[in-house]
Structures are given as structure tokens and as C-alpha cells.
Design goal:
Oligomer: single chain
Helix content: 25-40%
Distance between the termini: 44 Å
Largest sheet: 7 strands, mixed
Number of helices: 9
Number of strands: 10
Shape: elongated
Order of helices and strands: HEEHEEEHEEEHEHHEHHH
Structural class: alpha/beta
Strand content: 15-25%
Length: about 270
């Protein structure tokens, strides 16, 4: 699998004179210049301050590194800054001193910044960035309006940190919909203020539960990257895990988690 992925990257590298960008942009032109700058020399113009939070989510702002004068400045210009505007198209121009993102709507700035990250080649300790093939011009927009990924935490619990890492990874490859399969027969890991014992009894363990604060942090992360979360809470079927909340006997607990044949085998062993 790793070999196949490496071959794919090699093919992409052959296709473009710049570093591979995933997904492939609609248009890209490049030159032959090259620049190396300290990572901490990357600054964000006032109109691009919304991208600073995105930038710091990928790189630890407290890690030491040098600066330079003049800095490498990231600019962003949005044609329609309203929250209702969802167009993801953008244009990106990169020189040795700046990157300019021109977007139709706010989501386009984040998609343009994701492309800029692909152009960065970091040194081993992540303190310097090299950009090849300058100047670079990219014009891009999504081919498909819905570009999604599904996670199933009902059967395979994922920590809040892992889910937030998934969302960051989605932003890098410009996915925009996270289908979150939260509950099923196997577990109900979502805390409910109305029924506080539900998740405690129906989750895999009391520690494998998403609190209200967890949900707020996860949804805030997704909003920052303009990724829509589509939660799936199964009902009225696929709710056997909830029977633990109403029927706490060992026999009912087994029946709510496993096929009846498995419960019979457990009973015989006793």
C-alpha cells in the first residue's frame, strides 16, 4: 500500500514542475526561482488573520524558530465575506516574499491556504520552509460540491483529539463534509444532559463518552475549516446499546451487544 502511494506521488511530481498538490488544481503555472525562509517569518496580513488560527493548528506557535526581515506575508481577499457564501473557488499567487489568496467566499481562503501548505517543503526540524518553482499561480475550485468522509465511533470509538486530527487532515485534502456515525447497536457514546446515565451505561466504558464540551470543540474545529458535520444518531432501530440504560441485567446486556447465538454460548460457559 505504501509503495503504491509512493508511486502515485512520483507520478504526480512528474506531472507538475511544483510539489504535488492533492487534489490536482484546475490550473497551475510556475517559474524556476527558489526561496528558503524561516517558518516563523510567515506572517498574516490583517485581512488574512482568520488563517492565522488555521496555521497555528498545523504548527506549534510556541516552538522556537528564527524570523527575517522582510517577512513572508500571506494576504487574503474575499469577494463576498458573508457567512452564507459557500463558493470554494480561489486563486493563489506565490512569490519569494508573499502569497496572495483571492477567493470568491470565505471557504476559498482556507482551500487556498491548504494549497499553499503543499508548496512548502520543510526541513527536518520544521524551522525552515523552501518554496520551489517561483513564481507560482494556481486557479482552483471543487469538481464535486460534496466531498465527504465517514467515521463510525459507535463501533470504533475515537478520542476527541483523534477526531480533530481527522478534521485537520480533511482540510488538507479539501474535503468538506464529515459524516459522523455516532450511535448504533454497539454503543451510545454521546452524553445527554436530559439522560445523564444513558451514555455512561450504553457506551463501551464511562471514559468513552463525548461530553458537551467535546462536541463544541469538535464542531468549532470543523467550522474553522468550513467542514460540515452531519451527525447520525440511529433511531428507532439500531438502539440495542440503549437497552443497557433500561434493562441492566447481565442477560439483557449481552443481548443488547451481541447476536443471540453468542449470548447462548456465554450462558453455557457459566
Amino acid at each position: 500500500m505504501i509503495l503504491r502511494f509512493s508511486l502515485l506521488l512520483c507520478l504526480l511530481a512528474v506531472s507538475f514542475s511544483v510539489r504535488p498538490i492533492i487534489p490536482t488544481p484546475t490550473e497551475i503555472t510556475s517559474g524556476s526561482a527558489k526561496v528558503t525562509i524561516p517558518r516563523c517569518a510567515i506572517q498574516f496580513a490583517p485581512a488574512a488573520q482568520s488563517l492565522l488560527e488555521v496555521h497555528e493548528s498545523f504548527f506549534d506557535p510556541s516552538s522556537p524558530c528564527a524570523t527575517r526581515d522582510p517577512p513572508f506575508t500571506v494576504h487574503a481577499q474575499v469577494a463576498d465575506p458573508s457567512e452564507s457564501c459557500s463558493n470554494e473557488t480561489y486563486e493563489l499567487d506565490v512569490t519569494s516574499t508573499e502569497a496572495r489568496i483571492l477567493a470568491a467566499c470565505p471557504p476559498g481562503t482556507v482551500r487556498g491556504y491548504a494549497t499553499l501548505l503543499y508548496l512548502f517543503e520543510f526541513n527536518e526540524d520544521m524551522t525552515e520552509v523552501t518554496i520551489d518553482s517561483l513564481p507560482i499561480h494556481v486557479k482552483d475550485g471543487p469538481r464535486f460540491e460534496h466531498r465527504g468522509l465517514m467515521i463510525d465511533t459507535a463501533r470504533h470509538f475515537m478520542t476527541k483529539k483523534t477526531i480533530m486530527q481527522v478534521i485537520s487532515s480533511m482540510a488538507l485534502v479539501k474535503l468538506n463534509v464529515l459524516h459522523w456515525h455516532i450511535s448504533d447497536d454497539d454503543s451510545f457514546p454521546l452524553y445527554s444532559p436530559s439522560y445523564p446515565s444513558l451514555a455512561k451505561d450504553a457506551a463501551f466504558s464511562p471514559s468513552m463518552v463525548y461530553t458537551k464540551r467535546d462536541i463544541l470543540e469538535i464542531t468549532s474545529q470543523a467550522k474553522r475549516y468550513f467542514i460540515k458535520i452531519v451527525p447520525e444518531i440511529d433511531t428507532p432501530s439500531h438502539t440495542r446499546a440503549c437497552l443497557l440504560y433500561t434493562s441492566p441485567s447481565p442477560r439483557d446486556s449481552c443481548a443488547s451487544r451481541m447476536p443471540s447465538s453468542a449470548c447462548k454460548k456465554k450462558k453455557k460457559k457459566k
